Amino acid sequence: MKALILIAGGSTLVYAILAVLMGVLPGIELSKTPPGPGVESLTPLAAKGRAVYVANGCSYCHTQQVRPLPEDRVFGRPTAAGDLVYQTPELLGSERNGPDLSNIGNRQPSKVWQYMHLYDPRSVQPLSIMPDFSFLFRVVAEAPPGVTPVALPPAYAPKHGVVIPTQKAVALVAYLLSLKQPPIPGYVPPAVPMPSAVPSTPAAGGAPAAAPAFDATEGAQLFSQNCAVCHQANGEGITGAFPPLKGNAAVLNDDPTQQLHVILEGLSNTNVGGTVYPGAMPPFKTVLSDSQIANIVDHERTSWGNNAKLVTPAEVATERAKLKH
Ligand code: HEC
Ligand code: HEC
Q1: Can you give the pLDDT at residue 196?
Q2: Cis ω before 282 (30° cut-off from 0)
Q3: Distance between CA 196 and CA 217 in Å, rounded?
Q4: Atom of ligand 1 nearest to the CA of 133
Q5: Ligand 1 neighbour 35 (Cβ under 6 A)
Q6: Which of 52, 53, 61 to mutate to test the pocket of ligand 1 (most atoms within 8 A of CB)?
Q7: Which of 281, 303, 311 to mutate to test the pocket of ligand 2 (most atoms within 8 A of CB)?
């Protein structure tokens, strides 16, 4: 009997000590973490959106923790404890069926896109397996004043009336757009070589290798990573939401100034091919290098039947230099 009490009592004590050492103390320590530089608390609307996020099980498929792994680089910088100070309990998640959302407010800042995607993910990502959240929207005969209907291509739009977001959808999108990783001063991400960044071998005879020409593989890959969510892989855009790049005047122009300017600085409220699109195009000047932009531009200039003069990284650099003053 005595031995039994000793074993039961002893093991309970060991477990209790382990729980304090491995769970409680680190928890107390972590709760003292100060917010990271630039990390802001949620607005009341975004906080409501966070509740909608939780209630709809977005965490069943999405994480909010970027790991320090090469395959997570597309999602942002590795998550730091100071990022999550205003978001407790943290929605770290563990299932990565969809992309990590820690930095979605920077990666996909377009409200127009977010609404379309929530209403029906297939309207912007034809092969998406994400369920639709159309129950967070309402179909009405006419949008009330001050409310912008969701831009939907005809195949996804209701037969009659227009789709408007409910308060829940408005709050959820405010929350998604608030998910932005502020840069950590002094943090330089380790370089990940692009598959195409093979060191150029000098031409036979020791002559210096020619300037790297258009890299079609990299152009196609970068276009699909950065542009296809809106302009679509086939370059045809989405009627009423994102303009086609197939046959686009700026893309076909021998003078690439406008095309380069749009990629670097973004664009909004501009008539493109007869339509003023409801959303904005985000700027890419801090995301893409000169040679990456040149490859994307040349991809656009040589795809979908487009056949326009190619541009060089030097031309991108010239256009970029014009911005900084
Ligand atoms: C059953 C799994 C699943 C659930 C639940 C889910 N998603 Fe997704 N989500 C995905 C997948 C897969 C993708 C990638 C394909 C796409 O973009 O549609 C995705 C993409 C996204 C994207 C675009 C990410 C990017 O990097 O472009 C956002 C934003 C998003 N989801 C938000 C949400 C929100 C908000 C909820 C909850 C209301 C939610 N998701 C629920 C699977 C899911
Ligand atoms: C979030 C959606 C979105 C993404 C991502 C996006 N664009 Fe756009 N793009 C737009 C919208 C919207 C417009 C039209 C803006 C307007 O009418 O004011 C546009 C316009 C353009 C135009 C036409 C400019 C003109 O003056 O005719 C080009 C070219 C273009 N985008 C290229 C790109 C490239 C290249 C990428 C990727 C590096 C890209 N876009 C990523 C939404 C997007």
Answers
A1: 52
A2: no
A3: 8
A4: 38
A5: no
A6: 61
A7: 281
Q: What is the pLDDT of residues 40-89, one digit of tens each?
A: 999 999 999 999 999 999 999 999 999 999 999 889 999 998 999 999 88
**CB-based burial label for 88 (10 Å; 0-12, 13-18, 19+):** exposed
Cα–Cα distance list, 247 to 252, 261, 272 (Å):
7, 18, 11
pLDDT at 192 over 90: no
Residues with CB under 6 Å of ligand 2 are: 110, 113, 226-227, 229-231, 242-243, 245, 248-251, 258-259, 262-263, 267-270, 272, 276-277, 279, 281-282, 284, 296, 300
Rounded Cα distance between 288 and 312, Å, is 14
Q: Where do we find the tokens 């308060």?
A: 167
> What distance in angstroms lies between residue 136's CA and the mean position of ligand 1's atoms?
15
125: left (phi over 0), alpha (psi -120 to 50) or beta: beta
Ligand 2 atom nearest to 277, measured from its CA:
17
Instruction: Round to whole Å and give the CA distance between 32 and 23.
Output: 15
Nearest of 204, 223, 202, 225 to residue 214 by alpha carbon? 223
CA distance 86 to 105: 16
Q: What are the tokens at 309?
A: 């003069």
Distances (CA, A) of 298 to 97, 180, 249, 259: 33, 30, 14, 11
Of 219, 195, 235, 229, nearest in space to 291 by CA: 219
User: Which pair of structure tokens corresponds to residue 54?
Assistant: 């939780």
Mean pLDDT in residue range 224-241 = 93
CA distance 130 to 320: 37
Split at pLDDT 50, 70, 90, the class of 147 is very high
Q: Give the residue among 43, 40, 45, 54 at the shortest CA–CA distance from 84.
A: 40
